[in-house]
Amino acid sequence: AWSVYASLPAEGDGFVDAREPWSGHYALRSPVWVTAHTTHFVGVGWTILDVARGCSGKLSKGGTFVTYVPPERNAFVLVVEKLHGECAQNWCGTGTTDPEPLRFALSGGLDPALSAGLSAYSSLSLWMTNETHSFVQLPDLAIDVATASFEFMALPDTVYTVSSRPKDGSGSAGVPLTSPASAPFPQHVVDDFDGYYVDASPRYFWDHGGSWQVAPDPTARAGGNLVLKQRVPGPAGVNAWTYSSEPVTILGEFMNDVSVSVEVLLPGGLGGRA
C-alpha cells in the first residue's frame, strides 16, 4: 500500500492508495491487476523459459512476452504486455506500442506429452487488463492442432495472460470493493506519543525524509514520558535515482487557517526546549 498525503510528491504511485488511516478508506490501483496477470497464475517454483529459444522476449511493435512453466513442465502461462512507457526519470526512455497480431507455437520448453497430447488442451484461457478494464476474462483461445499453435491480436497499452490451466479471477466485473467511505483529515488532533511502544511510528505522520519514531524523553524530568524522535544521525547518502531529502516528517493534508502547538527539544547543545 502507498500511504502518502495527496498534496505531496509521488502521490498516486504504488499498488494501493491507503492515505486515510483516520477513515480506513483505500483504493486499488491498476498495478494490482497488472501484477495479478502473473501472480494469479504462476506458482512457487515455476521458472521462466529463456529468451534464447524464443520462449520469452520483446515484441516487434513494442512490448514483451514472458512464458512461465511449473517444475513438471506440463502446463504454461504466457504474459504479454503492450504498455506505453512514461518514465519519471531522465535516464530512461519513453515509448508507445502498436497493435500486433501474435502467434505462438507450443514447443521447446514444454514436456513432450503436452505438445503431443493437445487434445487435452483444445483451448486456452485468456485474460486482459487495460485502462478501462481490470483483469477481465475474454473468450478462450482455440489451439490449432495441425500447427500446435494459437494466435490473437494484442492491442496497445494492454496486458494479457494466456493460461493452459483455467483459473477463476475477479476484476472490475467481479466482487465489489468494500472500502470505508473517504473522509477529510480530522480538524482536531492531539498526540503526546505516550500511547505507543518505543520505536513505533505514530499515527498520521508521514516521513518524507529520514526516519521518525517514538522514543523515551531524554530529559531528567521525563518520568517515563515518550516523544517523537528523529532516528537518522546523519545524511543518508546520495540516491542514484532521485534527490535526497532532508529529514522531515509531515502531519496533515490540505490545511488552511489552523493553529498548531508543539514542544521541541534540540539535544546536543543545539538549543533549549522550544
TrEMBL record:
Q: Gene3D superfamilies of this UniProt entry?
A: Exo-inulinase, domain 1, Glycosidases
Q: Which residues form a coiled coil?
A: none
What is the name of this protein? Glycosyl hydrolase family 59 catalytic domain-containing protein
Q: Which domain of life is it from?
A: Eukaryota
Concerning Pfam families, the annotation shows:
Glyco_hydro_59
Give the InterPro entries listed for this entry.
GH59_cat (IPR049161), Glyco_hydro_59 (IPR001286)
GO CC terms, sorted: lysosome; membrane
Q: Look up and give the organism this protein is from.
A: Zooxanthella nutricula
Q: What GO terms describe the biological role, i.e. biological process, of this protein?
A: galactosylceramide catabolic process
Please list the residue ranges annotated as the Glycosyl hydrolase family 59 catalytic domain.
3-39
Molecular function per GO: galactosylceramidase activity
